[in-house]
């Protein structure tokens, strides 16, 4: 299997073929999750299969079993629809500012971490449970009760056409930071990072005026404490460089980028 602009190749790579699919707008998934996810991949077997990262590391193509992910917020400069990069083997120091701070996942099944989320400087508690860091989910998703707390704190009202919370310009001015407390570190998602890119309002289901403001946080169907309480999606990764280290003691790392506090939305 060969992929990427640098032509990374894996000899005798095993991969699955889907007999049916629904809701996919792409041709496949390049799985970079923990190897524990493969434990039930084979019928009637608990064998753990090597992942893409494992194979590249084992055949000596990359130095470390590490994947670094960078996304640039949409609409910055001449790159209207964003820019992204996946680095295999090590983090790319050109894509982040400051040091990468790590935390260990809760299990070998997902890149699931413990985090606490608060809203504003008054420290309104939104969530204090488990999150999954997932670049394949566009929007941050949170448990239904945590979502209701965020909805109440922001004053947003549900837009029936697109399913997003909508706020007025005055409410946007009053919007506060969303703080992600992970390990010993706190990551600040500024108000602009919490809204849908306004120049893409026309792409939303039901459309939207160019000055309409929609929040990008959505709710999960499950309550807090069910095991999966929050998904830090693509928009979170647009603001923080993210590293998945699947070595002997897996860990997830985050660092600021030059776009962490961008107001491009």
Largest sheet: 7 strands, mixed
Low-confidence stretches: none
Structural class: mainly beta
Q: Strand share of the residues?
A: 25-35%
Count all strands and give the number. 17
Helix/strand order, N-terminal first: EEHEEEEEEHEEHEEEEEHEE
Number of helices: 4
Shape, principal axes of CA atoms: globular
Q: What is the spatial order of strands in the main beta sheet? A: 12-11-6-7-15-8-14
Mean pLDDT: 84
Q: Helix amount, in percent?
A: 10-25%
Radius of gyration, whole Å? 19 Å
| N-C termini distance | 37 Å
Query: What does the oligomeric state look like here?
Result: single chain
Name the descriptors.
265 residues; mainly beta; 5-stranded antiparallel beta sheet; 4 helices
Q: Quick gist of this model?
A:
The protein has 265 residues and is mainly beta.
Secondary structure layout plus pairing:
Elements: E1 2-3, E2 8-9, H1 52-58, E3 66-72, E4 83-88, E5 97-103, E6 112-119, E7 124-133, E8 141-142, H2 144-154, E9 157-158, E10 165-167, H3 169-174, E11 178-182, E12 185-189, E13 213-214, E14 218-219, E15 230-232, H4 234-237, E16 240-245, E17 251-256
Parallel strand pairs: 7-15, 8-14
Antiparallel strand pairs: 1-2, 3-4, 3-16, 5-17, 6-7, 6-11, 8-15, 9-10, 10-13, 11-12, 16-17
Written description of the protein model:
With 265 residues, the chain is mostly beta strands. Helices cover 11% and strands 29% of the residues. The strands form 4 sheets. A 7-stranded mixed sheet has the order 12-11-6-7-15-8-14. The protein is globular.
